[in-house]
Amino acid sequence: MVTKLAKKMGGAVAPDTKKMAIQVPRKPPLYRQISEILYQKILGGEYPLGTNLPTEAELCLEFGASHHTVRDALKILIEKGMILRRAGSGSSVIALKEATVFAHVAVDLSQLVSYPHSAKRVNLAAEFISASADEARLLRCPQGTPWYRISSIRHSGSNPEPVCWTYFYLLPRHARVVKNKDHFDVPVFEQVERLSGDKIARVKIDSTVGRVPANITKALLVAADTPALITVRRYMDVADQPIQMTVSYHPEGRFVSSWDFRREIRTQ
Known about the structure:
Elements: H1 4-8, H2 30-43, H3 56-63, H4 67-79, E1 83-86, E2 90-93, E3 102-106, H5 109-112, E4 119-130, H6 133-139, E5 146-156, E6 164-170, H7 188-196, E7 200-211, H8 217-220, E8 227-237, E9 242-251, E10 255-259
Parallel strand pairs: 3-10
Antiparallel strand pairs: 1-2, 4-5, 5-6, 6-9, 7-8, 8-9
Helix pairs in contact: 2-4, 3-4
């Protein structure tokens, strides 16, 4: 029987709390917990600017975690732009708060020619084209060269402002890479190698300062003539012929590229 109070509430009956399942929030993965703890310790001054975090082995003991888990935790702090890892030198604190721009830290060739996993790519268009005069100049190819061009933007985390706009120029026979199930999880050049059997022997990277082209300002959420870092990557095969080209436009203030290479000293 519906009570008078229930009738006043439109017939709704209060739920039986005894029968309701208690929803217990899940704990985040251990590597995220470790990252958050270290993050708070940096903010709190326990690890001042310029000092090193405990070693990987020490962190494993402190948190009862594996080396893999600790590395994943440190990777989050790297992507936030707060620490820098150097082989043989540990993890140095380089910022006391999360960076407001996207930081691309490269310590080897594979990281230098591809973006970290935190930068998610979305394809906006894919089409067969003939290189225009401007494209021929950037790509250093004859005008009219046939390409399969993918137009895409990248976002970092939940930031609504795109990190960059990237054009991928593939040989027409490699167009089917866009149909791969892991197309957005694996670097495009690796997909090309896997599907075609072509091997990339050399990557040439040119960076210059210019302006965001007018046709992509709206997608990048920038004003006309906004300064940009323009990066052109040329992926060459063993015969020094291009397999893939990319042209990326990074609006001013949204991207930092940091390279960290270790010199190998050989004894005579």
